[in-house]
Amino acid sequence: xxxxxxxxxxxxxxxxxxxxxxxxxxxxxxxxxxxxxxxxxxxxxxxxxxxxxxxxxxxxxxxxxxxxxxxxxxxxxxxxxxxxxxxxxxxxxxxxxxxxxxxxxxxxxxxxxxxxxxxxxxxxxxxxxxxxxxxxxxxxxxxxxxxxxxxxxxxxxxxxxxxxxxxxxxxxxxxxxxxxxxxxxxxxxxxxxxxxxxxxxxxxxxxxxxxxxxxxxxxxxxxxxxxxxxxxxxxxxxxxxxxxxxxxxxxxxxxxxxxxxxxxxxxxxxxxxxxxxxxxxxxxxxxxxxxxxxxxxxxxxxxxxxxxxxxxx
Length: 313
Known about the structure:
Elements: E1 3-9, E2 13-18, E3 22-24, E4 27-29, E5 36-40, E6 43-48, H1 51-71, H2 79-103, H3 110-116, H4 122-134, E7 142-149, E8 159-166, E9 169-172, E10 178-182, H5 185-195, H6 203-217, E11 228-232, E12 239-241, H7 244-290
Antiparallel strand pairs: 1-2, 1-10, 2-11, 3-4, 5-6, 6-7, 7-8, 8-9, 11-12
Helix pairs in contact: 1-2, 5-6
């Protein structure tokens, strides 16, 4: 359980924020370790879900990226290619684990199953195929990829990118300008939507908004209180891992803003109470003025005694 947040700001800058709550199997803990993975100075990932599974996938991705950088150090690897490589590694690991869990216990692997399925009954084959195709990790894995590169209409310019993955499903949020993952996703994203965020908002405004979104997400169970933040851009490969002492400064600003909001809310509540009482009195006076005469308790209502039927005068 966790929350990770990213938002794009003016001049091609992107901010990434996460808590430090880690999940490994059935254990949740909050060590002094960031849930961020730096592939290069131009591309980072923020991770959610089981750390053991994420670590295995990301290690494979990182190894491939480092190999490519070593072979061509002057070539900036597009952020999207890194995200797509993650999806590929995800599928490979999922297939290996499905093979181990479903086929190995009956003495098969994927190649032998495909080669011998003609010798098996249709029911057995159908059952195994269903189990293999529906197999998934117990933990819901989600990842945010942020960074900048030259991939865009003009290869001479620098473009900032924001992608998310849920499992191996890749989505591009670069035009939206913000994204969140983890158990606190809804709380964080609602903060961006309420503030009307878009990718060209001023950097200082986006910085505070991203921090506030993470803080608001802390109401969700399993979201940690500690915070990490990274800023990429505006230049290609410019990355700043925000220090704890600077995060403490942001925390003071946030708490001051919360205090101001609390005072404003209390004033609004008092004014609303006065408004409600005023309206209630108006309705009460109008009701008394327009009320019909009260019926006398000593005079029962009169009933009509006349009957009209055939043969009666």
